[in-house]
Design brief:
This protein is α/β, with parallel strands linked by helices. Helix content is 29%, strand content 14%. A 6-stranded parallel sheet has the order 3-2-1-4-5-6, with helices on one face. The protein is globular, with a radius of gyration of 14 Å.
Length: 143
């Protein structure tokens, strides 16, 4: 059985999709109350870990698949375009920190980063952007 953890979980789209394909969502990290209430309805047994800045990857249950869609306000065309240095989008680095702290369960895979408009694979093929380089330097692989 494959398991999933979801950082910046939002409305729980990654856990919902994963569960429809036989992957068991174990935990999620989100700070907004409304989205958390939705995922609690869909997944009453899924643990909610709270703020990513307060998590230590070595102290959370290991998973086979980790998904995250860090905030895109600083990346989007309608945002301020400060990139990964912006206040919200710099939370991307928290995901990388957590990945590097996590206990290995095998080869962890990371899905598409939401909010970027393109998948990591598409971005990686065009040019090595800072976020692709950080993931390539972490313990994870992209799919």
């Amino acid at each position: 059985m494959l398991t999933l953890g979801s950082l910046f979980d939002g409305l729980g789209v990654f856990p919902l999709t994963a569960s429809r394909h036989g992957i068991t969502p174990l935990w999620a990290s989100e700070i907004e109350k409304a989205p958390i209430s939705i995922t609690k309805r869909h997944f009453p047994g899924m643990a909610h870990l709270g703020d990513v800045t307060k998590l230590h990857g070595g102290k959370i249950p290991p998973v086979d698949v980790l998904t995250f869609g860090s905030p895109c306000q600083n990346l989007s065309q309608i945002g301020n375009r400060k990139g990964l240095g912006g206040e919200q989008s710099s939370l991307f680095y928290e995901a990388i920190r957590i990945i590097n702290q996590m206990k290995p369960i095998g080869k962890m895979s990371i899905g598409k980063m939401e909010g970027s408009g393109e998948s990591f694979q598409q971005k990686a093929m065009q040019s090595p952007s800072p976020w692709v380089q950080h993931i390539q330097n972490s313990r994870a692989s992209l799919f």
